Amino acid sequence: MRFIQSFDGLQFLDTFAALLAAFVLGTLIGAERQYRQRTAGLRTNVLVALGAAAFVDLGGRVGGASESVRVISYVVSGIGFLGAGVIMKEGMNVRGLNTAATLWCSAAVGSAAGAGQLAEAVLLTFFILAGNTLLRPLVNAINRIPIDDRAGEATYEVSLISTPEAMPKLRDLLVQELEAAHYPVSDVEIFERGDDTVEIIATLVSTAVEPHEIEAVTRRLARQAGVANASWDGSTRE
């Protein structure tokens, strides 16, 4: 049997130590995620670390160090598909990026353990836990700082509600008014809001705006014939 011929007690113990380290360290990382009620919790992080360790260890035993490097490269790219599954987009917000990054780091811990770098795996686990716990108060403190709209990159939109008949004239007038106020338009979209109303939305080129200038533009547009409502909105993005 190939098992009897290929079995090596020392290599088996080495594999056991690598998988045990990946299991324990993945548990530490996953426990913190589970406590925070994240999408990828305890079991997911443990399995990612174990799988990475098993593949890297198997590659090293079968093909040597060069094959381990090849397997690690596949682990790095392959874990991206798993991470994409926990990322969710809700409107303008994206959730799950930190969880996906933690899964990626769990794979790195497993890869280090599988390659026999147990001390490095422990050190990496320490920094992962520090990033997810010790930095949390700093993140909360930064989030409480009021945002200066002029300092942040944001998307601004100006909206007109009008009749379908007046839409072509108002669309051109909207662009003219914004460009006259030195706010170039990157896109104009038309949406039907009913049988007798349409919405014209002009998206500005990413820039900082003066609220009173945009307010002045919307007030002028609101006085035009056929305009039911004129407004503007801005959303800051990372």
From TrEMBL:
Pfam families cross-referenced by the UniProt entry: MgtC, MgtC_SapB_C
Domain MgtC/SapB/SrpB/YhiD N-terminal: residue ranges: 19-139
Family classification: Belongs to the MgtC/SapB family.
GO annotation, cellular component aspect: plasma membrane
Subcellular location: Cell inner membrane; Cell membrane
Membrane association type: Multi-pass membrane protein
Alphabetical keyword list: Cell inner membrane, Cell membrane, Membrane, Plasmid, Transmembrane, Transmembrane helix
Main subcellular location of this protein, as a coarse class: membrane
Domain of life according to the entry: Bacteria
Transmembrane segments: 12-30, 42-59, 71-88
Stated name of the protein: Protein MgtC
Task performed by this protein: Virulence factor required for growth in low Mg(2+) medium and for intramacrophage survival. May be involved in regulating membrane potential by activating Na(+)/K(+)-ATPase.
Domain MgtC-like C-terminal: 156-232
